[in-house]
Amino acid sequence: MKHLALFAAAIALLALAPVVLGGHGLSVMTLTLTNLVLAVGLNLVAGYCGQFSFAQAAFFGIGAYTTAIMSRDLGTGVWINLPAGIIIAGLFGLVLGVPALRVKGHFLAIVTIAFQTVVYLTLVQWTDFTGGQNGILVPGVGETSILGIIRFNVQSLDSYYWLTLALAAVAIVVAWRLVHSRLGREWIAVRDDETLAQAVGVNTTTTKLSAFVASAAFAGAAGALNAYTMRTAAPDDFTIFISSIILAIMILGGKGTFLGPIVGAFILTIIPESLGEFSRYKMLFFGVLLILTITFLPGGIMQLVRNARTRRA
Amino acid sequence: MTETETNMTRPVLEARGIVRRFGGITAVDGVDVTVGQGEIVGLIGPNGSGKSTMVNLLTGELAPDKGTIRFAGKDITGVAPYRRARLGIARSFQMLRMFTSMSVEDNMLTATHIHMKRGLLSSLLNLPSARAEEDEVRARARDLLAMFELEQFAGRPVTALSIGQQRMVELARGVLSGPKLFLLDEPAAGLAPPNVDRLIALIKRMRDEFGISILLIEHDMRVVRELCDRVVVLDSGELIAEGHPETVVNDPAVIEAYIGKGWSRRAQA
Question: Membrane-crossing residues (chain A) (predicted)?
């Protein structure tokens, strides 16, 4: 209950952001929340289940192009496109998960890089379907309603921010339930010791696949909504560099901890975007920070928090 | 037919003619092992005799080149390890294995997933029915931790416990999964003598109170003598003796396997 109250307070506080922040600040916050959903999702497969993945941006892209292509070809709205983005990204998560079952460690990392590259190249090359390098323009969410009851008009920057905040809040709740369910315990079991997991009756194949699917579904949701926010889906938003940033967010925050990727998303989105003139060097910043974190603080910021707590206790 | 074999009811485990080769080496060569209902069977032999290979064949981590394994009347020869666990085969490991990032209690709970009746969805949604089931399983885990004198450690990280205590967690976890057969791979390894006495008492209780049949791989002959109804001796992958522990340890072939030819002649003299 204490958790729930804190969570509600944090969301309420964040909902007030448009009151104090201007256009740029609000864009940074929207990006922060999008990165949060991506990192929380990645943490499910990489942090809890121990299956490293460099492909989070690919699923992010698959979600975005689902919105873009469905809006263009079928004229469907956000309440169709968002679930569709989740489902289609989840299915592609399964596509990556199956070969990933056969490899571990560095080899798994390479397989996920290959997947990421194939998705990116497909988005660039399949011009008729994806619009190639220019991508696809996406109409705004516009006037919509939830089940015809709560009507609202999503046009302003503020409303896109709120919509992203709502998605982040739902993503956090879903991730919490996943991690604290039987399935979450099985993910951790697979990460800690696969042989032992099998010996106590865990089907490690389906357990790993479920982590890949869940992780991809989170990215799909983020992508489907982000296409509306950006009003476009273009391949360069879904490169391996974006995957690396999401990975850095998770690792700096603390992989395998619940709060880690959430804290990481705020720090690693807001700081580089505040560098102003120097933001062109942000990949350098991420790279150096990632090396330092892995070397000196493998448990990330949450490790510092934990250390401080045990010292106090 | 030995005396004990005729006495037992339908065997829980029946491995027949098991062969397993690694390249040119035959690690297990046509071995039969049966474990009757409520029986404690010792599997002994010198290092490299094929005991651990045999355990891995029985749990499904390795597949036999020849032979069949029947468990509770079913042929399980090609069945995956996790399915064998679900059918009721628990095991402990020679090299201790733990879910190192979990608490003692969570280590226990992973072994209960196989028996949870509530669907995954109700677990995800944290429905009252799923919560009730989880509470019930937690209560059973606490009872078993008490039996193994570990209840005060339930919330501790499992790695904070001593190796001896972790061995006890391993046994408690196995019992919690409600197996018909428990394969114990050198449970006394690394235990201090007073703890070995406790271990012997606990293994007896596992059989007597929980009705678990046991296949015990062990080097400590005191444990074998005090617990086993019957002993199977392997040497270089072959079964060289079988019978009551006292008979088997005096068998010249067994003495020879353990300490070599010269010694066995002198021991007989």
Answer: 38-66, 78-101, 107-124, 160-179, 238-271, 283-305
